[in-house]
């Protein structure tokens, strides 16, 4: 049986932090890996960190650069197939870009779901990974990516397993404490309930052998490096933060253990 992993993400660069390791790991194991990127990233930083609405920000130029960076990131991770839905980046919650009728957030859910469902029909993934219902941290495009991934899974019935990415709460606290201890300004005060309660985590995958490739993939997204705070961490802290990827399983149509260290548990022998 040909095994396929599909990751549904919102923007160029989202593929790395929470799923870069599994994409690299399963690609190396000979599984088909498919990355679906829903937007082109127009609301990302322009030259010098300029934001949408500020002088010098050209959304089309930003998207062109970010898609080029995505290709470099994909090469580092060894992802086999990349599918761009081509929607416009909605920007952070509350930005004026949210009002653009072309923004992913404003596209009728039936339309974007149909596009993703067609990709599921083509690739027939056994495992699909996306964000939770809050999009991880409330970004409109992450929430919309979640919605269409769930809807397409339900409409097609193809994936055997559906997972949400997660950052375990205890690991998040340790990470923030480590950053403070070495003098990194977070730029915000993390909520004490940031991350997913540890007891809800159903899968933790060891991707330690792929940390260096994840870091190279993060660095490939150089135009957004001001937002990629992990690159500010010393090497040993990067290894600690990036070496495991956690998930919450929300759909399972096969027999599989309650706690997993392999997203394809129950689908492979041994």
Can you tell me about this structure?
This protein is α/β, with parallel strands linked by helices. It has one domain: 3-Layer(aba) Sandwich (Rossmann fold), CATH 3.40.50. The protein is 35% helix and 16% strand. The chain contains 8 helices and 7 strands. The chain has helices spanning 14-17, 20-28, 59-77, 109-123, 140-156, 169-181, 211-220, 235-242, and strands spanning 4-9, 32-39, 81-87, 127-130, 161-166, 203-206, 244-252. Strands 3-2-1-4-5-7-6 form a 7-stranded mixed β-sheet, with helices on both faces. Strand 2 (32-39), helix 3 (59-77) and strand 3 form a beta-alpha-beta unit. Helix 3 (59-77) runs antiparallel to helix 7 and helix 4 packs across helix 5. The protein starts with a strand and ends in an 18-residue tail after the last strand. The model has no long low-confidence stretch (mean pLDDT 92).
Distance between the termini: 15 Å
CATH architecture label name: 3-Layer(aba) Sandwich
- Helical stretch tally: 8
* N-to-C order of helices and strands: EHHEHEHEHEHEHHE
Which residues sit in consecutive blocks of at least 5 with pLDDT less than 50? Answer: none
Mean residue pLDDT: 92
CATH-assigned homologous superfamily? LmbE-like
CA gyration radius, whole angstroms: 18 Å
| Multimeric status of the protein | single chain
Helix content: 25-40%
Category by helix and strand content: alpha/beta
Taking strands numbered 1, 2, ... along the chain, how are they ordered across the largest sheet? Answer: 3-2-1-4-5-7-6
% residues in beta strands? 15-25%
Taken from the alpha-carbon principal axes, the silhouette is globular
Reported for the largest beta sheet, the result is: 7 strands, mixed
Number-wise, the strands total 7
């Amino acid at each position: 049986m040909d095994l396929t992993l599909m990751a549904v993400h919102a923007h160029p660069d989202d593929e790395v932090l929470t799923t870069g390791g599994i994409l690299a790991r399963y690609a190396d194991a000979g599984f088909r890996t498919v990355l679906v990127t829903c937007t082109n990233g127009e609301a990302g930083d322009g030259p010098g960190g300029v934001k949408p609405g500020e002088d010098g920000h050209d959304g089309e130029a930003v998207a062109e650069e970010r898609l080029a960076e995505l290709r470099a990131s994909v090469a580092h991770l060894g992802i086999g197939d990349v599918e761009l839905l081509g929607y416009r980046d909605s920007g952070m919650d509350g930005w004026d870009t949210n009002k653009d009728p072309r923004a992913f957030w404003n596209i009728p859910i039936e339309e974007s779901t149909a596009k993703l469902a067609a990709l599921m029909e083509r690739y027939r993934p056994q495992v699909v990974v996306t964000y939770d219902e809050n999009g991880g941290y409330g970004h409109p495009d992450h929430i919309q990516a979640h919605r269409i991934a769930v809807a397409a899974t339900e409409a097609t019935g193809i994936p055997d397993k559906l997972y949400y990415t997660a950052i375990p709460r205890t690991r998040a606290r340790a990470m923030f404490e480590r950053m403070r201890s070495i003098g990194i300004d977070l730029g915000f005060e993390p909520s004490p309930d940031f991350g997913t309660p540890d007891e809800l985590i159903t899968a933790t995958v060891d991707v330690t052998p792929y940390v260096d490739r994840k870091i190279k993939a993060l660095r490939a997204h150089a135009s957004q490096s001001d937002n990629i705070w992990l690159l500010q961490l010393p090497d040993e802290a990067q290894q600690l933060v990036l070496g495991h990827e956690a998930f919450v399983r929300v759909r399972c149509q096969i027999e599989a253990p309650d706690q997993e260290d392999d997203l394809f548990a129950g689908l492979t022998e041994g």
